[in-house]
């Protein structure tokens, strides 16, 4: 089969397009014919070796954790799906090896859910990792409730744009940081945009004088202190990008595969409560360009690689 792979850590230039062996199918796995795979910041961080202390790499590595596609075959212990079913997945395992930037991926059944029928394969591919990150942080970690005010960073990005919509579905008022060129986009998602950078606390307090009830950070670094300073006295803060959030009394969350959460997210998309904005698409053989574009860090919504 055709796939993108790399034999060593490095920049986008280490990504090679070519033939690799088709994956074997274990009893708890589903062989998915890939139609699209989204690019996430974690993909290039894995490629450059930043996650080497926590994830062993079995070279050659096929990158990619997000997928949408069609079930080709199922393992002997998988009654949940059948050939022809359309699925989405956050196909993360405990090592870097066989990812989703390929014509086929053998996905553990615990990483899959049914694809929302109203989303294209390209849109659906952008839902699992970013959507689960937002969904789990807002529901499991922050426990957002109806009537609360939530602050979301990078509200026009992959995780942020989905967090705005999910928080709105939960009944919250949402303030989202974004560059001015993305303010109208954030409004369309249901959020109230504010410019990030110096003076953020004052701008947020102008909208929420008593502080926000919950803050979700997806950037980390210096923004954590500002986000913590926007909180109401009993406010909660979580970060999905920087463990240093604990220094500000918050919680760090690394998204995990969960079929029930992924199906709940898929159902929200099917109901029209959540949509995915795809800003760019690239064919599989141009995945290195997709990585470069994502690494620039100014993407609105998602970048997706398509497999014909």
UniProtKB/TrEMBL annotation:
Molecular function as annotated in GO: oxidoreductase activity; zinc ion binding
SMART domains assigned: PKS_ER
Domain of life where this protein originates: Bacteria
Residue intervals of the Enoyl reductase (ER) domain: 10-305
Record-linked PROSITE patterns: QOR_ZETA_CRYSTAL
InterPro entries with a match to the protein in the record: ADH-like_N, Chloroplast_QOR, ER, GroES-like_sf, NAD(P)-bd_dom_sf, Quin_OxRdtase/zeta-crystal_CS
Recorded coiled-coil stretches: none
Name of the protein this chain belongs to: Oxidoreductase
Native organism: Streptomyces ruber
């Amino acid at each position: 089969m055709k796939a993108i792979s790399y034999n060593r850590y490095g920049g986008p230039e280490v990504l090679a397009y070519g033939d690799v062996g088709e994956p074997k199918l274990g009893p708890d796995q589903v062989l998915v014919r890939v139609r699209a795979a989204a690019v996430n910041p974690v993909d290039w961080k894995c490629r450059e070796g930043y996650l080497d202390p926590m994830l062993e790499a079995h070279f050659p590595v096929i990158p990619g954790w997000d997928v949408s596609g069609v079930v080709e075959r199922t393992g002997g212990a998988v009654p949940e799906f059948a050939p022809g079913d359309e699925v989405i997945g956050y196909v993360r395992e405990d090592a870097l090896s066989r990812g989703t930037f390929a014509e086929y991926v053998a996905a553990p059944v615990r990483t899959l859910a049914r694809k929302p029928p109203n989303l294209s394969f390209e849109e659906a591919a952008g839902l699992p990792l970013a959507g689960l990150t937002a969904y789990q942080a807002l529901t499991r970690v922050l426990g957002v409730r109806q009537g609360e005010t939530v602050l979301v960073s990078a509200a026009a990005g992959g995780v942020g744009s989905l967090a705005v919509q999910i928080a709105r579905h939960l009944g919250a008022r949402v303030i989202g940081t974004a560059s001015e060129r993305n303010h109208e986009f954030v409004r369309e998602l249901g959020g109230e945009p504010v410019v990030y950078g110096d003076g953020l606390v004052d701008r947020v307090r102008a909208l929420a004088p008593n502080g926000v009830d919950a803050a979700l950070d997806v950037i980390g670094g210096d923004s954590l202190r500002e986000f913590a300073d926007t909180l109401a006295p009993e406010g909660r803060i979580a970060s999905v990008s920087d463990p240093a959030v604990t220094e500000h009394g918050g919680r760090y969350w690394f998204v995990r595969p969960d079929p029930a959460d992924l199906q709940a997210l898929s159902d929200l998309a099917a109901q029209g409560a959540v949509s995915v904005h795809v800003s760019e698409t690239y064919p599989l053989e141009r995945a290195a360009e997709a990585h470069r574009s994502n690494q620039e860090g100014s993407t609105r919504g998602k970048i997706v690689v398509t497999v014909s």
